[in-house]
């Protein structure tokens, strides 16, 4: 199709608009990265915009020397790995049986899961239950209460439904049990949905903040987002500064930026590689909703 | 009834195959599946259904020392207290206000962006733009708050430094109620606009390309093509998503308003979940806030069910 001159101009206007949007997405992160790599003096004197001024790794050094940050980062990394494994197992265990249309009781199990999507007990009742179970301040409270998302379960089930049923029936005729069918046929074919759900669960756990705010008082078990929240609101920054003796306010500013980077970079490194998978997941989710 | 029509039971029997598999044989054949379901079902019962028992707190005295069943009932007193509380009405108003603004500004944004992306002729550039546009969706509200606080800081934030250089006065984006609401809505769009284009882009791909070719032959310009082909093509998607979004009018999360707010804007930033957290968890008013939470869940449920109902009704016509 030949394009007219007006259309060519239009093409470039659209490129311009999109470039503006890219900048709006990227500049905040460039800004914070530059601040984390600048000297405290340059920060106080407002000299840092979009490029590090008086390049310095002091902020990162400070973060690495602070036991609290290192502990929190390692703890959150562990939580994320354990959370993804646990959630994938739970999601599979729930989704797989529900694709057997002739399974007696299927409708009941399905309903038990679906009701929770529309009506929840609310935050205070959940808190009271968890308190009475003695799970407050227990690291398990950051794994168990939200380890299975019905939404993700439906996503996985829809994917399973897309695998030809004849495959399953042939295996059943050959005498394969459900467990064998799952591990030999379904899981090997499910890499896309497993990748998508791993990303969703990992991002959810890595970014998780509210559950820690409600259920955790003990500093040992602060995930990185909770620590970062207190740091940004200065409470933690002042304390740490006093404890560990890095008083210069400029450095404290750089440390804030460095901590934001620590919380952000792992996500930025992972999500682009899974793009083709999660797009399919997001489309499916929106249709199902 | 009449001959030739099978009864339901006969039909079922037929469905189960010639071997006449009975329910019991199926249970025996699939016992492993029931074992698999034990853990997920236990999860739902413990963490999703057991908390509902504590909804009883909404009708009981505020006492969490005694076991739940020993706490005396007080009828609807907690609801009366909530409805007599100015803070509650304020939180309800804020919930509606912020959600309506979110829908008003945030709903059209991904539609516009999806159309722009679809019109891009440089495929590589389009893919890069998409990847970057999805990024904010993966950032937590704490991170976004960290980024925004820096960027919008009154004296030394990038935005205000640039505005000062251009000769404008600094703006305090987080401190004044009106500014805060605008910042809140803007950050919401910033986080979600790219991600929400996915569904519209999928809808656009389903539009018959012949329509565009025919329009080009007829000499229709870009804007005409968008107006007469793209928009009508994704209209059903737009309608359904809009209705479903309306279902969340009284919903809304805790994290975004909680993380973004500060003492100078409590009046506009305290939404219902924040009210529940501060009154309930921080000030030990468990019965009152259970009642408020229940009010929000029940009203929210009606909104969602009503929205689903409408979506189904309109969805049928929208497809035509």
Index terms:
heterodimer; A: 289 residues; mainly alpha; MetI-like fold; 15 helices; globular; B: 320 residues; 2 domains; 0% strand; disordered C terminus
Verbal overview:
The complex is a heterodimer of chains A (289) and B (320). Chain A is mainly alpha-helical and 289 residues long. Helix content of chain A is 72%, strand content 0%. Chain A contains 15 helices and no strands. The longest helix of chain A has 32 residues, at 5-36. The model of chain A has no long low-confidence stretch (mean pLDDT 90). Helix content of chain B is 71%, strand content 0%. Chain B has helices spanning 8-15, 23-29, 31-53, 77-83, 86-106, 108-119, 123-134, 141-151, 158-165, 177-205, 209-217, 222-246, 255-260, 266-269, 272-282, 286-319. In chain B, helix 6 crosses helix 10 (177-205) and helix 15 runs antiparallel to helix 16. The radius of gyration of chain B is 27 Å and the shape is globular.
């Amino acid at each position: 199709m030949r394009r007219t001159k007006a259309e060519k101009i239009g093409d470039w206007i659209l490129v311009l608009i999109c470039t503006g949007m890219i900048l709006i997405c990227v500049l905040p992160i460039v800004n914070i990265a530059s601040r984390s790599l600048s000297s405290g003096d340059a920060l106080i004197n407002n000299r840092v915009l979009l490029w590090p001024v008086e390049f310095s790794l002091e902020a990162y050094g400070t973060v690495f020397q602070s036991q609290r940050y290192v502990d929190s980062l390692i703890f959150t990394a562990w939580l994320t790995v354990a959370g993804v494994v646990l959630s994938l197992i739970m999601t599979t265990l729930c989704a797989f049986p529900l694709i057997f249309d002739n399974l007696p009781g299927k409708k009941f199990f399905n309903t038990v899961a679906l009701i929770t999507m529309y009506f929840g007990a609310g935050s205070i009742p959940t808190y009271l239950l968890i308190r009475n179970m003695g799970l407050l301040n227990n690291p398990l409270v950051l794994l168990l209460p939200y380890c299975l998302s019905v939404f993700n379960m439906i996503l996985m089930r829809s994917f399973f439904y897309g695998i030809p049923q004849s495959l399953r029936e042939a295996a059943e005729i050959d005498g394969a049990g459900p467990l064998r069918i799952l591990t030999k046929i379904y899981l090997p074919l499910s890499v896309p949905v497993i990748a998508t759900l791993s990303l969703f669960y990992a991002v959810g756990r890595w970014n998780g903040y509210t559950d820690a705010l409600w259920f955790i008082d003990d500093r040992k078990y602060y995930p990185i987002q909770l620590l970062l929240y207190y740091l940004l609101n200065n409470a933690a920054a002042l304390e740490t500064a006093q404890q560990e003796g890095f008083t210069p306010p400029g450095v404290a500013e750089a440390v804030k930026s460095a901590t934001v980077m620590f919380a952000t970079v792992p996500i930025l490194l992972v999500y682009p590689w899974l793009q083709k998978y999660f797009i399919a997941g997001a489309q499916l989710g929106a249709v199902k909703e | 009834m009449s001959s030739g029509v099978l009864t339901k039971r006969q039909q079922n029997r037929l469905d189960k195959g010639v071997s006449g598999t009975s329910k019991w044989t199926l249970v025996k054949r699939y016992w492993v599946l029931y074992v698999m379901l034990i853990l997920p079902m236990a999860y739902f019962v413990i963490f999703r259904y057991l908390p509902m028992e504590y909804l009883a707190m909404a009708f009981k005295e505020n006492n969490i020392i005694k076991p739940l069943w020993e706490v005396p009932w007080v009828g609807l007193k907690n609801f009366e207290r909530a409805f007599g509380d100015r803070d509650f009405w304020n939180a309800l108003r804020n919930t509606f206000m912020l959600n309506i603004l979110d829908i008003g500004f945030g709903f059209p944004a991904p539609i516009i962006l999806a159309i722009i992306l679809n019109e891009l002729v440089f495929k590589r550039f389009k893919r890069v733009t998409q990847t970057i546009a999805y990024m904010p969706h993966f950032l937590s509200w704490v991170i976004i708050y960290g980024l925004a606080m820096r960027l919008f800081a009154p004296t030394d934030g990038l935005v205000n430094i640039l505005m000062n250089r251009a000769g404008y006065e600094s703006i305090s984006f987080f401190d004044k109620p009106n500014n805060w609401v605008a910042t809140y809505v803007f950050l919401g769009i910033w986080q979600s606009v790219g991600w929400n284009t996915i569904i519209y882009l999928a809808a656009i791909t389903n539009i018959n390309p012949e329509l565009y070719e025919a329009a080009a032959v007829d000499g229709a310009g870009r804007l005409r093509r968008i107006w007469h082909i793209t928009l009508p093509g994704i209209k059903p998607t737009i309608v359904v998503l809009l209705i479903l979004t309306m279902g969340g009018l009284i919903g809304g999360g805790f994290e975004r308003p909680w993380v973004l707010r500060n003492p100078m804007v409590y009046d506009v930033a305290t939404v219902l979940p924040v009210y529940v957290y501060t009154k309930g968890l921080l000030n030990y008013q468990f019965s009152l806030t259970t009642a408020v939470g229940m009010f929000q869940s029940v009203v929210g449920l009606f909104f969602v069910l009503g929205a689903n109902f409408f979506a189904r009704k309109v969805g049928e016509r929208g497809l035509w």
